[in-house]
Amino acid sequence: MAPVGPAFLVLLGALSPQDPGLDPRPYQPFFRKSCSDCHLEGMAKGGLDLAQVPTDLRDAEALRRWVRIYDRVRLGEMPPPKKEQPPAGERDAFLKALGGSLTRADLARRKVVLRRLNRTEYENSVRDLFGIHVDVRDLLPEDASLHGFDSMGEALAASAELIQAYLQAADVVLDAAYGPEKEPKKVSLRFPLSQDCKAHIGDLFRDTPDGVAMFGGYCPSAARSFSCKDEGSYRVRIHAKGFQSTQPVVMSVHAGDIVVQRRPFHLVGHYDLPTDRMSIIEFTDHFARYDTFIPKPFGTSGGNKDYPGPGIVVGDIEVEGPLEPWPPPSRALVLGGADPLKGTLEDARQVLLKLLPRAFRRAVPPAAAGPYLALVKAELDAGRTYRDAVRVGLKGLLTSPLFLFRKEPAAAGTIDDFAIAVRLSYFLWSSMPDAALLEAAARGDLRTPAGVRAQADRLLKDPKVEAFTRNFTGQWLRLRDIDFTEPDKKLYPEFDELLKASMVAETLAYFDEILMGDRSLLEFIDSDWAMLNRRLAEHYGIPGVDGLTIHRVELPKDSPRGGVLTQGAVLKVTANGTNTSPVVRGVWVLDRILGTPAPPPPSGIPSVEPDIRGTTTLREQLAKHRSVPSCAGCHSKIDPPGFALETFDVIGGWRDRYRSLGAGDRVDKFVDAAHKVRVQYKLGPPVDATGELAGGTPFREIRDFKKLLLRDKDALAAALAGKLLAYALGRGMGFSDRAEIDRIVAAVKPGNYGFRSLILEIVQSPTFRAP
């Protein structure tokens, strides 16, 4: 054991018990015996020199570094296993003392932040407040993300730009709430698509007794006989069948404004068409003015009207709508049933008194209507109509801080019942509480864990919980980034719109299956089942799966699939458009799955880029990268998960060799077999998915790696619990939250870590109710 150097003693002696950082006295024996060989007197293995670590824990970086020291000792990584180990009692005493300091420092740094509704929450809230369909999310500035979520209070700042956007959004909301002045003309159409094709594009498609036959490639088959004149929901029925094929043929439908393109087209869906009969494809979609829809074949080769290959036949099309009642119920809500021209100030008072408790999400005294009623009165005094005057008052309500921000009064260390109701509803619905939840808060039902559990259980059974699946999963697993990159068409010609849509649908359905069935959260790591359709199953090489509807499929024995790590959507968002990076995927696993985000890389260290020419592998480049001492410590944790996932390519397909556009072997495969168009990529070096965990445990590939992850079930559960709490509370989890997270995990462990049980345990916890 090397002697303790004077610099280390100076460091310890400089701290006093009154220092706002660490009290060194409990740590001195432990540091002297266990740390001085490697982290003192100019020795900084793993980039850690104890003499240089700041001790003022009011600084976020100092606190992070000391938490890192604590964790490495707790996990037995320091001292290294090959070094002399301190007695268990000394290690425990060290952890207890340091843990106490870190807990106090974390609590002292915590800020109570008034949380603003993010864009999604705002849109959902005005929808539920008035009972309307309205698209205002894109009118608001994009929300910043922190700790992986856009619900973090610290990141949801206000600005002059944002206030202007809220004023604009309020006008759009109130337009929808008031509805059109005149009753929309109901549409009930039935027309053959062939008449639109002939009238607008000429003799491009083939006539058949059942309708017009069309094939892949350029396919301008918009239903022009319907162009939406009055915004609303419309029901569409398309009579169609597959053509010149022994297998079902896929039809895609997109909707939007094909003439002026005021809005981007959106995908309505993909549909299997049998070839032996005409079938009816029915959907309901929201159409804005001038919108229509385009049915066309998907995944078939292009050709002229005499093309002998697969296509589709589209016959008659039926359209009916708008389906909404008129006048809309929301009009009576905002006008109170009064005459739009002759209503009185008292009528406006009754409207506001009914809306304010719902808009502000709590009981409010009658006097709370005063500021908004004053706006109405000023407009009426100026000679405005009642309708216009009330609109001004409602616009004030929609731009009020009491609506835009989530007020959370607290006493005795607990937020009040209405604030608990709001936390519950925005956690599980991304929207405001419904009447039943507000009534439960008013009765005091939410003052007990059992009362909170009962309401959370009810919310989880409501269809609006779909927002939790989409918003939490979209951010936790980064599904929202599915369009961030586009796979290179030369390297990945098989990637298409149906595959992408199926990937996202798979992960959302998988999350729902675990949530609704209270299945073990460990199945997020591995399972013997998956949620697939035919397109995904073909991509994954799993036989016997039919249809385009996502459904549960038992996986073949020893399949590498099962769990979110091997799902196409996750594998795509953790790769760029050309190749994969073990570093990117490793960082993702550490953060999203293990809850141990990697620290930022040292300054001045260049990143490692994949070589798509096929001359070197990224593993070879990383070996050189890890030779840099300041990089080796972190990469020993980052790289193994990434290496384990190397057998999956950019679009989640299994691979034994890398694809390249340069060196490599030619591939005897066609992009378009009908036209004998070969793939352009070649097969480069073989994939090496072996690795070794930081502790020295080896693995061969992803199946081994998943088993290693499942050795520490408590850690996996704690990581997911931390993500759920951060999403629910709008703040990052700190060291002081660890004890409660551990208690939550212990509570769900006897039930095999049921995921729904975990959520119910979280909402009952003191942390969920704390300011």
- Strand % is 5-15%
What's the pLDDT, averaged over the residues?
Answer: 90
Number of domains: 5
Class based on secondary structure composition and strand pairing = alpha+beta
Q: End-to-end span in angstroms?
A: 48 Å
Helix content: 25-40%
Summarize the main sheet.
Answer: 6 strands, antiparallel
**How many helix segments?**
27
How big is the Rg? 30 Å
Number of strands: 22
List low-confidence stretches. Answer: 1-19
Tell the overall outline.
Answer: flat
List keywords for this structure.
single chain; 771 residues; alpha+beta; Jelly Rolls; 5 domains; three-stranded antiparallel β-sheet; 27 helices; 40% helix; flat; disordered N terminus
Word description of this protein:
With 771 residues, this protein is an alpha+beta fold. The protein folds into five domains: 6-109, no CATH class; 115-179 and 333-407, no CATH class; 187-321, Galactose-binding domain-like (Jelly Rolls, Sandwich), CATH 2.60.120.260; 410-461 and 714-771, no CATH class; 486-709, no CATH class. 40% of the residues lie in helices and 13% in strands. It is built from 27 helices and 22 strands. The strands form eight sheets. Strands 2, 3, 4, 5, 8 and 10 form a six-stranded antiparallel sheet that branches. The protein has a three-stranded antiparallel sheet with strand order 7-6-9, with no helix packed on it. A three-stranded antiparallel sheet has the order 16-20-17, with no helix packed on it. β12 (410-411) and β13 form a beta hairpin. α20 crosses α22 (629-644) and α24 packs across α25 (738-748). The longest helix has 22 residues, at 88-109. The protein is flat. The two termini are 48 Å apart.
